[in-house]
Amino acid sequence: MSGELLSYIERDSVIHRLTGSAKLICFLLLSSAAMLTYDTRVLLSIVLISIIIFKISKVKIREIGFILAFILFFLVLNNIAIFLFSPHQGTLIYGTSHPITGSIGRYSLTLEQLFYQINISLKYIAVIPPALLFIVTTQPSEFAASLNRVGVSYRLAYSVSIALRYIPDVQRDFKTIALSQQARGIDMSRKATIPTRIKNASSILLPLILSSLDRIETISNVMELRGFGKHKKRTWYSFQPITKRDIIAIVISLVIFLLMIAFMFINQGRFYNPFL
Amino acid sequence: MTKQPLIEFQNVNFHYNSQAEATLLDINLTIYEGEKVCIVGPSGSGKSTLVHLLNGLAPFAYDGELTGSLKIRGKETRELDIFSISLLVGTVLQDTDGQFIGITVGEDIAFALENNTIALEEMRERVAHAATIVDMASFLHARIHELSGGQKQRVALAGVLVNDIDIVLFDEPLANLDPASGLSAIALMDELQKKEQKTVLIVEHRLEDVLSKSVDRIILMDQGRIIANTTPNDILTGTLLPEHSIREPLYIKALKYAGCLVGETMDVTDINQLDVKSFAPKIQQWLKTIQIEEKDQVQSSPLLQLKDLSFHYQENNPILKNINLAIHQGEMISIVGANGTGKSTFGKLLCGFEKPTAGSIEFNGMDGANDSIKERGQRVGFVLQNPNHMFSKQLIFDEVAFGLQQQNLSAPEIKERVEETLKICGLYPFRNWPISALSYGQKKRLSIASILVLEPSVILLDEPTAGQDYKHTTELMTFLESLQQRGVTIILITHDMHIMMEYTKRAVVLSNGTIIADSSPACILADHQLIDQAHLKQSSLFALANVLDITDPAQFIEKFIQYDRGVRFNER
């Protein structure tokens, strides 16, 4: 069947076997390391580690291709926006200016700006694999359990996990509705003009929203009928005790995080400056 | 031992806040421990509200005003909450897909225990126990969406049985199951009562299927009131069922047609226990009066021809294999078979949603391989099971006009065609109404109208009658028959053996992606092996023919269908 966005992908890998909470902790550590630092060396090593983790997980690129393309699109958009709004951010940070191109008005490309934006892009690239992997290698129920274990309320955790779980169903509905509307002659292809396409897309959205509301009604009735939300706490059938494997994964992530902190002290700040 | 009353309704009225009038009126009903009771009634009879009151969804989730007294195990339900009620009453819903929360079987069964903060070890034991009761113990790690409809229902049942409850409510349990899975579901409910000593309440309008195992009582509801509360035999021999639009079991209908039940007080609930001596001559007499009409076999060249059609998503997993089929103009045919046997894929190929991996589809001798979805849509119109999936406009007129507006036709022409279609579909008086004001049956007709207006030569309907009561089913099918008489070719994908038998003269049986039969419904229903292989259900007429030693059951069924058509036609 066609690929489904952000749904659990079953494989037998070390990553899959880690408990949900260990994965969540590792993901949080790695992503905050990548978020905090602008040190190219640290970022490059996190990117490398991310790619390795991705390899280990046995998840294939094409299985998450669409969402990856989507994120990359935003990465490009973000880069363009940074350059448009603050073309000299790099110079401001690194204190020097090595122009590569001539200037058009206030716009000229400097080595510093290029370096800065490369670092931003590296952050994206470092964070994407752990984030996507956390989602696609964790069973939705374990997903909720792990969020709950790190302190998120179980109601919130459950609503996130149910939303993820329903993505494939909604996608299936979407496909059926879209096809049946196309069969009635509603043109969604490139042949139609953009305003027509937008108008026509709404002819799919309305029934899709209504059908999703039906789903929500059913599922919330079921949950109530089976006692969801009665107590402040709940237990989890999918509870997995923390194993040695989990500890090792967490320790590795922690070490990376601490190294990042260490580099912050070495650089005396979040930036690594090769221009000095 | 006197039976303990478990559920007591005393002068109960219920009025949803969202509705203008009360839904339940003056309900008095007692259900005793260990009983198996079937609640029947047409849509809007209030039977679902009765279920909601019993499981607490009303008035706790759906607000409304409850007067009178409703006690479960001696406790007034209005003093309880939905959670405490859920420890007394378990509900298995109709929706076979939407009611699961867990991904795997074990996890879903455990849901109620998790919410009740049961420790992991005890939880595992109780889940395993509940799974054993429904015979799903070896599936604890299986993913629910990979199970069959019947298995899903077992999981849903286990999910309520983990809470050692006394009462199990089944809300239209047969609506989404193929006929054979439906029968095994009924058998499971029977075991639940006999082996586990549960009190079982079944809300269902497919009475014939429910009665395949004995029930203690039948409660007939209509327009918010209880019409009858009596034994199955009483209700079967009486006239209340047809009067309140409930489909009678076919063998009962046959017995009535033959005049066997006039003034009889015999037990007729079990076909095998019928009074053969007195019934057989009467039936034979009746059969003699029916002459089978000659079918006009002269057929023009086929409108639609499938040649060696195959389809797969993955090379090693074929879904349809070498389908050959010719369909002529003006035919109405049924496509039947078990869940997951390729029926819906077959439909998708016909309307061009999927392309065949081998073979061809020809329309009037022309290959349709290069049709776009839009072009195909003008030849084969597809009516989805859920009409709400098809509506994107507010007003009825606009919805029907929507498809035409895409073709750049002039406004007067659109108006003319839409109005004509609405007249055919009986929706013309409502043309300026919002769609939301229509009943489910009317919406179904509107969804057909929005396809019909495009003038396709074939209309394909996916489970057109699922979840609809006898009255609406009859209305819809009569409407489709009138379209057929206008020359529209109609293909029904259905689980409903009654529909297949009563309305279509030809049925195609799919099993594991191939056509295993293409014949008259009477012949199919008389073929025991075929029925097993295709997960169909034997008609009670066939069983009746056996009991009465009728030599040619296929002919018997054929004659019944013809006679019944005549009766229906005269009623119209």
What is the topology?
The complex is a heterodimer of chains A (276) and B (572).
Chain A: H1 14-17, H2 20-36, H3 40-56, H4 65-85, H5 89-94, H6 111-137, H7 140-149, H8 154-183, H9 194-225, H10 244-267
Helix pairs in contact in A: 2-6, 2-7, 2-10, 3-6, 4-6, 7-8, 8-9
Chain B: E1 5-16, E2 24-32, E3 36-40, H1 47-55, H2 57-60, E4 64-72, E5 75-76, H3 82-86, E6 89-92, H4 105-115, H5 120-133, H6 149-161, E7 167-171, H7 179-194, E8 199-203, H8 207-210, E9 217-222, E10 225-230, H9 232-237, H10 240-243, H11 250-257, H12 276-288, E11 304-314, E12 317-327, E13 332-336, H13 343-350, E14 358-363, E15 366-367, H14 373-377, E16 380-383, H15 396-405, H16 411-424, H17 440-452, E17 458-462, H18 470-485, E18 489-493, H19 497-503, E19 506-511, E20 514-519, H20 521-525, H21 528-533, H22 540-547, H23 553-571
Parallel strand pairs in B: 3-8, 3-9, 6-7, 7-8, 13-18, 13-19, 16-17, 17-18
Antiparallel strand pairs in B: 1-2, 1-4, 4-5, 9-10, 11-12, 11-14, 14-15, 19-20
Helix pairs in contact in B: 4-5, 4-6, 5-6, 6-7, 15-16, 15-17, 22-23
What does this structure look like?
The complex is a heterodimer of chains A (276) and B (572). Chain A is 68% helix and 0% strand. Chain A is mainly α and 276 residues long. Chain A folds into 2 domains: 1-139 and 241-276, no CATH class; 140-237, no CATH class. In chain A, helix 2 runs antiparallel to helix 6 (111-137). In chain B, the strands form 4 sheets. Chain B has a 6-stranded mixed β-sheet, with helices on both faces. Chain B contains 23 helices and 20 strands. Chain B has 572 residues and is an alpha/beta fold. The mean pLDDT of chain B is 90. Helix content of chain B is 38%, strand content 22%. Chain B is globular and about 70 Å long. Chains A and B meet through helix 8 and helix 9 of A and helix 3, helix 4, helix 5 and helix 14 of B.
